[in-house]
Amino acid sequence: MPSASRAPVPGTAEGGPTAAAEAPKPVRRWLVLAVVCSGLLLVAMDATVLNVALPSIAHQLSPSAVQLLWIIDLYSLVVAGLLVFAGSLSDRFGRRRVFLIGLAVFGLASVVAAMADTTALLIASRALRGIGGALIMPATLSVIRNVFTDARERGMAIAIWASTASVGTAAGPILAGLLLESFWWGSVFLLTIPPVLLAAAGALAWVPESRDPNPGRIDGLSALLSIVGMVGIVYGIKEIAKHGFSDGISVAVGVLGVVALAVFVGRQRQLSYPMIDLELFRSRRFTTSALAVLLSFFGFFGLLFFITQYFQVVRNLSPLETGVRMLPLAIASLIAAPLTDVFVRKYGTRLTLTGGFTVIAASMALFTVLDGESSEVLSVFGLAGVGFGAAIAVTAGSQAIMVSAPMDRAGGAAAIQETSFELGAGLGVALLGSLMTALYGHYFDDVAGVSGAALENARESLPTAQEQAGRLGEAGQELFTAAQSAFLEALSITVMAGAVAMLIIAVLAYLFLPNRVKEQKELEESGGGGGW
């Protein structure tokens, strides 16, 4: 059997020669870049645009605390599970074709989500949007690699592609806040319709069709195992956090998820053409860098889920005011990304990553002292610090992933890098959100004059408590005060847990990554890669 480490990875530059017409003229190349970046902007925005709308959704659809988590993180989990599989589809059937199909699926799901009148339909539409996002994302990078044949231009194009993801992620809450000032919560989904139409028109006009003449085998079973594994584990964690281990169904689904992922890993080791190149993880530099990227998004998206609820429900700010208060996060991210290369050149990847995660940890720790009257300065510095540190860590970690992999396996490294983005976002909301939910219920004290269903509903989530309080008169105010107190207690412990996770990866980066001099020497000698 051929070595798995030598197999080409679908959807990447190593998947074989590309069948396409000669490279487009310069102006058209940059038009193509604008088109594919429009598609990527959709995927990035959708990961964050919904956070500001959560309180409104809670009031209209009355989802449980666990359903709120699914509304946010199911999208990222589906994208993460299907990215590499979608890349293989684009290689076989054509990158432009798959890109257009992804846009169509994404647009349709956006309309369904905007019109959803039940929680179940909204969650289903988020999964459908995830399928669309997974079809869009790998096709964008493959098109760039096909169109930009000059190495320098390609590097610039990929840098713009990566910056587009940062801009979309940061802009999501702000644009959502603007819309929610005048429209219903479903309008945040329709925000993506104009870019979908523009990207589709541009793709038909300017993007050349291309495909791999020797595509790898389409491995639907591996894609299914990865989705079942991730969703099963996350489902188990969420439900066990709420109901405990006495809920046999939750435990069984969680175990099913673990088994599915174990089978997935075993299958990747046996296949000649694996979906994920596990051999790359033999390098501690690669493994640490991939973990750094994953945990950067873990902390970033986990905090975003809580802080928007804090601003709107505890501080009673409007969606627009909440979006404005997210500006420090966005601005700091945009400032930090181009500075990362300077830091890496001067201090090396080890110190840059260690510093970035230390900044995230310190900034998250600031949120442990939040209350209803906390100074605006506290949240400004906290959000700016998280945005700055996360951008540094993601950019440095992404660069380290690519340079630590041998050139003939660069495509496999890119696939793992992209998956780390989405998986980190999904797990951040799932794990930290589940911890938050459990702690919120634990710290929610009984309220005199409120009992039965009203009290249990209030213990579901803070937005639900706010809705219940509005129906109960004077007792409702006491109920809402108790809910706010429980939320702040839970928030303090949850963000501290997140800060500890950031410190742990900071230590791992310092221990397992080489110093600047050794890093440069090893890269010059080996051209990438490295053992444990």
From TrEMBL:
Q: Ranges of Low complexity compositional bias? A: 7-20
Its membrane topology, per UniProt? Multi-pass membrane protein
Chain intervals for the UniProt region annotation (Disordered): 1-20
Which residue range or ranges hold the Major facilitator superfamily (MFS) profile domain?
Answer: 32-517
Single GO molecular-function term?
A: transmembrane transporter activity
Q: Which UniProt keywords apply?
A: Antibiotic resistance, Cell membrane, Membrane, Transmembrane, Transmembrane helix, Transport
One cellular component GO annotation, for this chain's record? Answer: plasma membrane
BP GO annotations: response to antibiotic
The protein's matches in InterPro entries, at most eight in alphabetical order, are given as: MFS, MFS_dom, MFS_trans_sf
Give the transmembrane region(s): 30-54, 66-86, 98-124, 130-148, 155-176, 182-206, 218-237, 249-266, 286-307, 327-344, 351-370, 382-403, 423-443, 490-513
Tell me the compartments it is located in.
Cell membrane
State the name under which the record lists this protein: MFS transporter
Q: Which organism is it from?
A: Streptomyces parvus
